[in-house]
Amino acid sequence: MHGQHDGPHEDDSADAVSAQAKEFSRRLTAMGQSRLAAAAQATVGGLHALIAELRPSGDEFRLAIDFLTEVGHYADARRQEWVLFADVLGVSSLIEDQNNPRPAGATPNTVAGPFYRSDVPETPLGANISRDGKGEALDVAGRVLDLDGHGLGGATVEVWQANSEGRYENQEPDRQPEFNLRGRFRADAQGRFHFRTVKPKGYTLPADGPVGQLMSALGLGLERPAHIHFRVSAEGFETLTTHIFDQSDPAIGRDAIFGVKPELMAEFRALPPDGGKRKCALDLNLVLCPQRQGKTGTSGRR
Ligand code: BEZ
Ligand code: FE
């Protein structure tokens, strides 16, 4: 290719393999095949193609290194800025989709997110999971079904959500009661469950770190439309982890983590006011698919 064009870079098309990437690949191949080696090879090949396309200056390269360094500085046991970065790039949702595809008719899986807790005590059907009673009352009624529409009696339904200010209980342990807006229900013999709660508010992902600054520089938002999380398990079926979104939330078309799918949008229906107070209801079906070989239905990360 060299010498065919006048400009110093014109001979490198975006997808040309750099000499360095070729040599990296050759060295790896000499070490033998492994999944790690294949991943390293694909990553380096992709990075070099990107560099050939973008041609970053030295200063831009340093800025990128500074950004990644800052993401590392923000990550600790309480705040995972790397996961947030993966979330807003759509990477977390893509990996979830690839690992947990669901057949037509089954409820789609989504990421669980960072606020799930597995230690919630079992709550009786009909319980009110709003342990501080703050917010607009919401009655939720649903059924756990198989692909043929039969109820899955005894299925376990875990639920967690933000409060009417868009905050989860474990984000503000000093302001909300333990296990506020979390429940663990056992569906009845027909797969039915119901509980009382309050209408969740949407929220904004952390904007104060490097990922927030990047999104702001790109003119992109960090909003998540209002939703309730569910995790449903039943013997012989793949565990379903999903969100049900309020279809009337103005942010429904711009979820920062790309979790919204048409099947997961629902109406939080207004009911006649109860004692002068606003009230609403949500009815839903959660459809599980039979356990398939090698699939647990839950992602390894969270
Ligand atoms: C959530 O819905 O709780 C969530 C999911 C992914 C990233 C951040 C929050
Ligand atoms: Fe959430």
Brief write-up:
This protein has 302 residues and is α+β, with helices and mostly antiparallel strands. It has helices at 19-30, 35-54, 58-74, 81-88, 91-99, 210-218, and strands at residues 137-145, 156-161, 182-186, 192-198, 203-204, 223-224, 227-233, 240-246, 265-266, 269-274, 277-287. 25% of the residues lie in helices and 21% in strands.
Task: Report on the architecture of this protein.
This protein has helices at residues 19-30, 35-54, 58-74, 81-88, 91-99, 210-218; strands at residues 137-145, 156-161, 182-186, 192-198, 203-204, 223-224, 227-233, 240-246, 265-266, 269-274, 277-287. The longest helix has 20 residues, at 35-54. It is of the alpha+beta class and 302 residues long. Helix 1 (19-30) runs antiparallel to helix 2 (35-54). It contains 6 helices and 11 strands. The protein starts with 18 loop residues before the first helix and ends in a 15-residue tail after the last strand. 25% of the residues lie in helices and 21% in strands. The protein folds into 2 domains: 7-55; 81-287, Aromatic compound dioxygenase (Protocatechuate 3,4-Dioxygenase, subunit A, Sandwich). Strands 3-2-7-8-9 form a 5-stranded mixed β-sheet, with no helix packed on it. A 4-stranded mixed β-sheet has the order 4-1-11-10, with no helix packed on it. The radius of gyration is 24 Å and the shape is globular. Residues 1-20 are annotated as: Disordered. This is Hydroxyquinol 1,2-dioxygenase. It comes from Kaistia defluvii. Its EC number is 1.13.11.37. Residues 1-11 have a biased composition (Basic and acidic residues).
